[in-house]
Amino acid sequence: MVLPSHIPSLRQFMLRRDVMVLYRDMFRTIREVNDSYYREYLRDWVRTEFKNHIKETDEREIQLLVAQGRKRLQEFQTSMDNAFYRT
């Protein structure tokens, strides 16, 4: 069975879910930053990074971007554990 082109495949659907989970996880982590100016800077940075890649359609590139985002999120969470930014 062939799906219409506007309906995503299961792989595309799951990749989209991964992107959305990463986005939410980043904002949940940013919410814990105590400094309001730094928190707003991080929010703007995350929004900009995601908007810069919103038109990306290559699945491999999206997977790479998600992996890089997860790594950055982990690094940020680790640095927050070792710093005073957490509320």
Automatic annotation (TrEMBL):
Has keyword Mitochondrion?
yes
Q: Main role?
A: Involved in efficient integration of the N-module into mitochondrial respiratory chain complex I.
Protein name stated in the entry: LYR motif-containing protein 2
This protein's GO cellular component annotations are: mitochondrion
Major localization listed first in the record, in broad terms: mitochondrion
**Native species of this protein?**
Salpingoeca rosetta (strain ATCC 50818 / BSB-021)
Q: Name one Pfam family in it.
A: Complex1_LYR
Keyword annotations of the record: Mitochondrion, Transit peptide
Give the domain of life.
Eukaryota
Family label = Belongs to the complex I LYR family.
The record's subcellular location field reads: Mitochondrion
Question: Residues in domain Complex 1 LYR protein?
Answer: 19-75
* UniProt key word Hydrolase: no
